[in-house]
Amino acid sequence: MSRAANPAQEALRRVIMARYPITQVVTFEEDRVEANLRHLTQNSMKRAGFWTWACTTGLVGPEGPVKDTRDPERALDVVAGQPAGVFLFRDLHAFFGQPAVVRKVRDVRLALTNTPRFLFLTAPRVTVPLDLRRDVAVMDFPMPTATELGHLLDRYVAGFEPPPDDDTRLSLVTALRGLTVAEASNAMNMAFYGKKRVDDEAMTTLHAQKAQLARKDGVLEFVAQKWQLDDIGGLEVLKQWFVKRRTLFEDEEADRRGLAPRGVLVMGIPGCGKSMCIKAAAALWGLPLFRLEMAQVFSGVYGTPEETFDHALKMMEAVAPAILWIDEIENAISADAEGADAGTKGRIFATFLTWMQEKPAQVFVGATANRIDLLPAELLRKGRFDQVFFIDLPDESERAAIFDVHLRHRKVDLTDINVVTLAKATKNWNGAEIENAVVAAMIEAYDADREVTEDDIFFQVGKVVPLAVTMAEQIKAIKSWAGQRAIRAS
Q1: Same fold, 7-140 and 229-391
Q2: Domain 396-470 is in which class?
Q3: CATH architecture designation of domain 7-140
Q4: Rounded to 10 degrees, what is the CA torsion of 432, 436, 442, 446?
Q5: Buried b (16+ CB within 10 A) or exposed e, 397-409
Q6: What's the longest Cα–Cα distance across the chain?
Q7: Which of 116-127 are b and which e, b meaning 16 or more Cβ less than 10 Å from the residue's Cβ?
Q8: Closest-CA residue to 312 (of 387, 223, 215)
Q9: pLDDT digits (tens, 9 = 90+) for 344-377
């Protein structure tokens, strides 16, 4: 038998070489399983025929449909009577509630053992009943590789003028990773319909396909990318950390060498841009960003918190490469959890620890925290998060940059506004307070039907008592804790 040409064929080939008589293939891609099995049968098993079965069509072999085989028991009888062959049954698990079908599967397993006959069952999830667990092997069908998706993409963009350059093509393929062939085709139909070139909207459309997958499960929220690293004032150390890792998700060689970043934990003073950094990283890396809503996890609406959390992690694996954003992680996984939630949080924490250690490299975790001292030490060790960053209150130059970002973002003419003077007047302010002062000044100016002035902003500054004053003791404690335990983001 010749070596398979791709990971999907290789996985199926190994099952056949191992002589498993019955295997359940866990996948949504029935057609892709069929295509690969048919290819293997025709090219590597010359004396075997390829057969398919569904309750709507019955058994279909090399000579065409077999009469009266819509009934699964009758179809399995035909399988047992063939001298050789590869048989693909779709949705047989729907009949596992019938004792006679379960018994027939066990009988067929005995008949197929040590023969050139192999029965494959497709299902979207593991559905092997207890009575068959020792008789049926289970395999996860590999998702399409970057190479396969690249070939598919090339067919869609053939004839584009100008053709996508290597960087653009790599970014598009990365955006398609985690989608089935059918989903990728649908996404590209939407992204490129009526177009003859790749534009900025195409990437957004491809990410929207992944957003649809997450939206069906409720607890994962797709976050649109509207912030860039240049929209963040200061924090140069953290920004450079993201920039250096920009291409590692797109490079398969880096992935094989284990160089892809696993996650980052950003802690610091409230309102200083922790969440914005995660959003900007997603835009920089060209990856979809999903926020895990822990309140929804604990609500019980989608099942027990443990089941919901585990399902959300599996969904992230399905849409990878992607970024999982967990905001204020200390509220979800706390070392000081008490009362009724203590056991639940403990179990979720144990699940999260194991997943962070074993998760696919293509899922990056961006977590933020205000009180990192509440997090268990096990979560902070290397191997789970690549780095822990501390964001302090912005210094004068950073405050000037923040004023500049928010004013320019709102199309304010800076000719008569001195951001350095404003920065000097807002010592110990955080970024959120600066933004609020700018917005409040603009509202007042808008109400007076005129452009905002520097005096308008100074007037708003004088009305604010910053968080650094109202929460001085807590902020001092946060700085003290982070001083020896985290890398400064600035």
Answers
A1: yes
A2: mainly alpha
A3: 3-Layer(aba) Sandwich (3.40)
A4: 130
A5: ebbbbbbbbbbee
A6: 90
A7: ebbbbbbbeeeb
A8: 215
A9: 777 888 888 888 888 877 889 998 988 777 777 7
